[in-house]
Design a protein that fits this description.
The chain is of the alpha+beta class. It is built from two helices and six strands; from the N terminus they run βαββαβββ. It has helices at residues 16-24, 54-64, and strands at residues 3-8, 29-36, 43-51, 68-69, 72-73, 75-78. The protein is globular and about 60 Å long.
Length: 116
């Protein structure tokens, strides 16, 4: 089972192939991808690497976290799963909702009514 690793604080000069070669010294790399900005085509400064096993991934994390690449100390750790939904603003699966707190808000009606 492959393990996904997050690599942050990358210099903009890093490419998919150079990222892969840095991790290849620790074992088999399934994939390496530097995230790119859609509009500018420039690197966003982070990427993801998939290693063949958890042991290889841990060795790469231990060996590369904090290492200087083109003058920048890279951050290497296990990737977290993507958050479900998301999006900007207050819209979610339940639609737009105001504060969920009962002690603030419009209260029981009337101008300025309710508890604060």
């Amino acid at each position: 089972m492959s393990v996904k690793i997050y690599v942050g604080n990358l210099p903009y000069s890093v490419t998919d192939s150079s990222l892969e070669s840095n991790f290849a010294e620790f074992g088999s790399v399934s994939s390496a991808k530097v995230m790119m900005d859609r509009e500018t085509g420039r690197s966003k400064g982070f990427g993801f690497v998939e290693m063949a096993s958890a042991e290889l991934a841990q060795a790469a994390i231990t060996g590369l976290n904090g290492v200087s690449v083109d003058g920048r100390a890279i951050v290497v750790n296990l990737a977290r799963p993507r958050e479900a939904g998301g999006g900007a603003g207050g819209y979610g699966a339940g639609g737009y909702t105001a504060s969920k707190r009962s002690d603030v808000g419009y209260g029981t009606g009337g101008y300025g009514g309710g508890r604060y």
